[in-house]
Structure formats: structure tokens, C-alpha cells
Amino acid sequence: MPSSKPPTGSESRKSPDAPQQPGKPTPTDAPQQPGKPTPTDAPPPPGKPTPPEAPELIWLRPERTGRGPRPAHSRDSIATAAIGIADAEGLDAVSMRRVAAALGAGTMSLYNYVPKKEHLLDLMLDAVTGEYRLPPAPSGDVRADLADLAHQQLGISRRHPWLPALLLARPSLGPNALRYTDHFLAVTAPTGLGGGARMEAMALFNGFITQFAQFEQTAAAGAKWQAELVGYLGQAAASGEFPHLAQAFATAGPPADPDKAFDRTLDRVISAILTPATDD
Amino acid sequence: MPSSKPPTGSESRKSPDAPQQPGKPTPTDAPQQPGKPTPTDAPPPPGKPTPPEAPELIWLRPERTGRGPRPAHSRDSIATAAIGIADAEGLDAVSMRRVAAALGAGTMSLYNYVPKKEHLLDLMLDAVTGEYRLPPAPSGDVRADLADLAHQQLGISRRHPWLPALLLARPSLGPNALRYTDHFLAVTAPTGLGGGARMEAMALFNGFITQFAQFEQTAAAGAKWQAELVGYLGQAAASGEFPHLAQAFATAGPPADPDKAFDRTLDRVISAILTPATDD
DNA sequence: CCTTCTCTAGGTACAGCGTACGTAGAAGCG
DNA sequence: CGCTTCTACGTACGCTGTACCTAGAGAAGG
Fold it and tell me: Does the CB of B102 sit below 7 A from strand C?
């Protein structure tokens, strides 16, 4: 569920040290030593006992280094535990202590797997992104394929109410997100848009869906809040200070079916994506 | 600047006093856009005392009740202090203690003005929303008016880097947001769309801009992170597992000017809004 | 085999957070 | 003048993320 654009603006420059994982790559990336296309790293000084700085991106850290006792937990099981807590009690209930306890581990042991809490959230994000059922190849009907993706995302977001908030807070780029991205690019290949444009389209597409789901969640969260809101808006409308708001209120029909509203706007978004660029 | 959702660093939703949300299995019930969902409660008529339960919405609480000693601070000064801290040191630096200290007040005194920290954030949100320069009436050129609003929002978001995260975290509906909403409705009146449809359009419009600004912020936040990301993506592309991603990478030109990218997608969004409904 | 070194598990501790609660006094209303 | 209601503020509690430390498990090198 990546909500990112290609990196814009400032380009990468010096990186004092970007330690390359010495042995096995993570199970999700290919057994491959970066030959030429990685401009980001300096060669690790040979013979140095410990690389002083680990990568910030958790996906660049190997899950297992092969030395010492074997870990009692896996990234998968950790993510599953955290997701269970979040599903049941909300994102706020996901604390390091809580997750560690759910795993039957000491609090600080968790830090052997997850250097910061942020990374725990990354694991959760990528785990649920794995819930997509991606067809092996695009069907040929771009609109249908996109609508399917959208409905899957909405479904996942409803299953995990904490998801939208997390997606909006930080870009996710785990292995499953890469898989999703690749599929999206495949689906939109027939549009004739370039790679960068399709990445932007993906950001727009996912952003809309995520925000819709997020709004659903906040609306569902508090009945009292909602009731007060209606009163407040009505009061504002009645004040005469906001004539167009008042008129929109008066014009508004019965509360629309959220699914209908979703499909309606989704249609607009897909159209916006499929429209050939005005200038590129 | 109404839009929808948790803060970076330590984000959250769900409050302790409302531990009841749709459990885990069926959170599918979902209301929708500010229409008219549940008439549970009415706005307090003027003159009604509020001893038993204060409204959750801070805008429904009177700033001053006229009794007792006069407050030493105003909502405005509090919001200004908090915004100053957030601008200088980020949203995480905005704590009740910190804001109170900036005001020269005791920590707990702040709670006389702001019943919960959430409400402090509401005050901040509405204060910056007041930075819009709204013309007295639409110009008649819908596209131009919308583009102006979009660029103003982008400018405000760049001035206050914490804004997008907050905007995405919670809907804001303070007085300034109402003013903005009314203006947006006025601008889009010539489209012939109904009130509800224009509200949806506003959500889409603001959502896109907010997410764009948010992405800019996260990208600008960490150079190291960005460098690692490029390396990671390149590695993924080179792995052969993500052919379309690799191809998009190969096709991608130089990093695009963010302003250009913004205008390009904004154009698409505006077109999506202005397109008459396909079916309704 | 033993040694050595790296890794893991876990405990303790700290600074900071939001905020419940209680007390003291100021200011408007009768 | 009370009476009531408000403001100001200190103390304290439970919680957070996580820095740092101690043991001990187990593979690698001799």
C-alpha cells in the first residue's frame, strides 16, 4: 500500500557509511550484490570489527546474521502480534511492552528485532499489505483492475481500522509494498503514461482511498463527537455568516451510502489518472 | 482546511474515555461526509448551563463565561505559543508543559483553557487556517480560484511543516475552517454540482494537497533515509522480481521539480472535480 | 577439543508524557 | 456581605520509548 512518489527535490549525496549486509540477503530481495545501480554506498572498510551505523531502513537489515543463538521470534510473528493488538484495542495500545508481552518476551528483547518503534510500525504496515490478492497479470481492463485494487484496499482498511492513520503518517516500502507497486505499474502500463507519471498516479490513487477510509474511521469512532458536529455545523449554517454552507446543508439529500460515495469519487479519480497528460 | 487524519513520532487515535469502538470483526458500519447522520443531540441553545457534561468540541465551549477572575491568556495566545514551538522544533516538541512554560503559566493552568491536548491541536489547526487570504467573492474562473486555494494551502503547509500530519490526523472544523469551506462552496457553485458532491470534491481537493505537502516534508526530513531508499529501490529493481518497477526506474528522467509535479497533478484533480458526474 | 566472539534475553532506570485531583485565592452576583 | 464560580498551580500516578548493563547461548577458528 505504498503512498509515495518518486523521490523529489534534493538528491542524495554523501553517505558517511552505508554498511552492506555481509552475508545472506533478506529473504525478500534477490541474492544479488549491488553491481552498479546503487549510488548510495561506500565500501565497508575491511577488517573493521563493527559497522558503527546500521541502516535506518529496516528492510535493509538482514533478519538473521547466522551467528550466536537463534532468535526466538521472527519479524512475521512480531508483526502478527502487534497487528492483533492494534485490531483489538487500537493503535495506541501497541506499545513495545505490550507487544513483547504478547510474544512472551521481555520488553527490551524486542529491541533486538526492532531497533525503534517506528520499525515495528513498518513491519505491521507491510504485513497487512500482504493481504492483497494480486492477480498474476493485468486483465487488460484498466478501470476494472484499478477498481479491484481500490476495493481491496478499502476492505483491508476496514479490517484494520488503524491502517489509514499509519499509511498517512509514513510511506511504506516493504517487500509487499514493492509487489503492490509493481502490480500497479503493470496495470497502468496500457495508459501510455511514463514511469514517473504512473508513480504520481499511484500516490493520488492510494491517497484518496486511504483518506476515505480514514474519514470513515474517525466518523465511526465517536457518536457523541459526530452528534455535536452536526449541531455545530447547523448552528454555523444558521448564523448567516456562511451562506453557501447553509445552502449546501439545505440542498443535501439523505445521508448517502458510503460505498456509493466511494465508488462515485473513485470513478473521478480513475478518470483523472487515465486522462492523458495536458502537458508533459 | 478541512480534511481528514496521527502524528508522526508517536501517533495515535482512540481516547481512553471512549474505549468502545467497533470491535474487530465488523467495523463496516460507517457514516459519511458531514451530511446528516444521527440526530442524537442538538446544539445547546444560548443560555444553557453546562454543568454535567461539557461539549467535546472545543468550538462549542465559550471562551469566557464572565464569572470569576479574568483569564490571563486567550485561545489565540495559546495557539500562537504552540505554533511557535511546533514551527521551531516540530510537533513532538509541543507538550502541555512546554506550551504552558512558553506562556509563563503553570502546566496545569493550561487545562483551564484546553481540556485535552487534542483541543490544543484543534486551536493550532484553526489558527493557521486563518492564514488563508480569501477573496471576498469568487472571480468567476473556477480553475483559477481553485488553483489559488491550492497554492495558498501548499504555502501554508511549507511555512508550518507540522501542518499536513495534523490535517491528516483529524478533521478540523474551527471557525476559520468554516470560512474556508464556505468559500470553497462559493467557488465551486458554478459547477452545478450539489452541496454534498461539492463537499466530497473539497475533501478530495484538500486531501491531495495535504498528502503532497506531507510527502515533501517526510522527504525533506532525512537525507540519510532518502539515500537509503534510493539504494533499496534500485536494489529491488535490479533483483528482477519487480520488472515494471525496474522499467519505471529506467524510464524515469531526472528528479522532477516538485512545484511542476504539484501543478501537473493538481490539474488532474481539478479536472476530476469539474467533470460532471457520470451517474447520479 | 577449547577458546573466543558474537549474538540473544532480559532487567533496571530515566526522562518525559498526559492528566486526575486538591488547594488557595480572586472576582462577579445576590 | 456572603456565596458561588471561576482561575492558578503543585503534586502525583501510570504510562511511554529506550539507553545501558548483565548473563549466557552457540557458532567459528584454532
Answer: no
